[in-house]
């Protein structure tokens, strides 16, 4: 978009250029404001987690949740993680924020399990910088120990891009996490540039089929083909599959027919509060 804006700015003269540079200036100001505000977000209690159910299709039960970060700032209002995570990543603040996310998610999961809720996993998104941080394993181990959560209840979601950057290094990091018993999955699968020879070496347990394929399942036969190919690939590599962004029954039925293991999306529930998750999930007393 910025190249295009620059191109049209150059070609359509001074007014457009001025417009473009004002636009750029506004962006820089917003980024700076967000970065400054983020610095206080944790201590001011502005961050919270919401949880989105992951439904196993074989049993129709909620078997896991994905923790998703929310930020409500007193003057800037609600800011999407799509906007602030990259800023936190550039400024390094993602390390402290990511630690807060892991701590909060582990604490919540431990509470749920102690209450007798039948959940097998809580998934947490990991950014590139967190994943490459030399202290990652130590930090996570410490959190799991302190919260008393056995490692197999935690799943870390890495995007394809993060996993495929310097893949030999990535494999080594994944192996240390995997040896500890922590589960790994590849998020937004199909949108990056996975090398299949590396994919087979990743000690991961799950592929998350990107929402962009799921959303066009009804009208686009290419997207249907891509989904069934991803599911075949996962089956052949011994990996589980979960589809993101399932919004209607037709999408669900297609995924079920293809043998997808789990689904996540607005059709079942948007990301929601811990209390709401407790109302939706089965308890050991129910069965
Ligand atoms: P993601 O990990 O791929 O998360 C899925 C996103 O899709 C979430 O957006 C979720 O609210 C949304 N979603 C779920 N079901 C549906 C659906 O049926 N339809 C549609 N249209 N959307 C659906 P959200 O919460 O805004 O998060 C966006 C991205 O921000 C996440 O994508 C993830 O990459 C990042 N993110 C969120 N929380 C964290 C975090 O704690 N740490 C890091 N590093 N990244 C995070
Ligand atoms: Mg995710
Ligand atoms: Mg995703
Ligand atoms: Mg996605």
TrEMBL record:
Q: What sequence ranges are listed for the domain EAL? A: 31-285
**Record protein name field:** cyclic-guanylate-specific phosphodiesterase
Query: Superkingdom of the source?
Result: Bacteria
